[in-house]
Amino acid sequence: MKSDKDNWAAVPKTKKLPGWKMKLDKENELLQVILNVVQDGICILNDQLDILYANSTMESWYNTHNIEGRKCYEAFHGRIEPCENCMILYSIDSREPVTAIHTLENIKGKGWHRTYCVPVLDSKGEVKLIVEYIRDVTGETKSNLLLGLLEDQTQLLQDILEESKKEAKRNEQDLINKMNKAIDSVIRNLSDILDNDTLNTVKKQLKMVIQGETLEQLPVFAEFTERELEIACYIRDGYISKEIAKKLNISKKTVDYHRMNIRKKLGLDSNSSLKQFLIDNLKTI
What range does the domain containing 219 cover? Predict the structure, then answer.
């Protein structure tokens, strides 16, 4: 009985391939079909950076054909030596898979690619092959960059708005200080004309006018009674209930009652600092 080899040599035009050979070629053909329909670049190299296989995506990206046996840096990048920071060399040296996003320029123009390099080791742990898998992430990266830019612009606008509010607050405080000085001047002139009770009433009314001018940003203060506003100002200035009661000649219980109403009108819970809220929102008079 003749061998498959002898049969094949005897009738090369009519002899079918041996079964194992046909199966191997069909599997190889199927694998190449699969690799060629993948939209990502796939390249297989040896440890000398010689290209053993590149799928049609790689050939299309770099507008090159029949590159098997050529150095990857020469075939893809037109260089005479390996690229700087070559991921393939790093993977060979480390014997570990590596991945990174970097810019590449090919027939499609300049874009961003994520590259995966996976070394294939033999039984002795030596690198025999390198599988390079490249995915075009230009669209995704541009979207992320645009999103980052929009976030930066939004933050910038917020910073500008916050600074404008602070500037408005400073200007408002300057106006209040000027009005207070004007009131003090009027009170001094009236002190020789009016009795103390009338003078205190005038002073209080003038102060309330200023207070009313500063409550536009928080209309809830407009619902305060005169006594509540008076106690709120003392709380803001750091006085405790006992001290406020002494200044206003009322009981501490009454002050605490007003405190409760103030909190209720401001919508503050027990965990919120009434003093801090008033410092932030109730302007100095």
Answer: 175-281
